[in-house]
Amino acid sequence: EVQLLESGGGLVRPGGSLKLNCVASGFTFSTSGMNWVRQAPGKAFEWLARIDGGGRTPDYSDSAQGRFTISRDNAKSVLYLQMNDLKPEDMALYYCGTDYWRDPRARGQGTQVTVSS
């Protein structure tokens, strides 16, 4: 059973930074592509970034490119998302998930990011 636990969200001022963490268990993390997605109130899920099992070739959405960095530590089964230059429009519930993240069973419960002055 896939288990994913996000943390690291919080309240940050515009222009600030946060680093999200996602601890994984219940599956072979080191060979699994992993993603970060978010959902703002009243909006659809938005995919942000993906990294393959080996940590190579990260891929980003236009909204994440240049500000967010996805990384992973396979020894610890942890996925990260470093977010810089945060904007009010980045405010959302952030989830980590496998490549099947559209299935609620393949993503965590989320961590809230609030960007406000």
**Shape annotation:** globular
* SS summary, helix count: 0
Unreliable residue runs: none
Query: What structural category characterises the helix and strand content?
Result: mainly beta
Strand arrangement within the widest β-sheet reads 2-10-9-4-5-6
Average pLDDT, to the nearest integer? 97
Order of helices and strands: EEEEEEEEEE
First-last Cα distance = 40 Å
The percentage of residues in β strands lies in over 45%
Question: Quaternary state, please?
Answer: single chain
Radius of gyration: 13 Å
Roughly what percent helix?
under 10%
Reported for the largest beta sheet, the result is: 6 strands, mixed
How many beta-strand segments?
Answer: 10
Write the layout of secondary structure elements.
Blueprint: E1 3-7, E2 10-12, E3 18-25, E4 34-39, E5 46-51, E6 59-60, E7 68-73, E8 78-83, E9 92-98, E10 111-115
Parallel strand pairs: 2-10
Antiparallel strand pairs: 1-3, 3-8, 4-5, 4-9, 5-6, 7-8, 9-10
Give an account of the 3D structure.
It is a single chain. With 117 residues, this protein is mainly beta. A six-stranded mixed sheet has the order 2-10-9-4-5-6, with no helix packed on it. It has strands at residues 3-7, 10-12, 18-25, 34-39, 46-51, 59-60, 68-73, 78-83, 92-98, 111-115. Helices cover 0% and strands 46% of the residues. The chain contains no helices and ten strands. The protein starts with a strand and ends with a strand. It is globular.
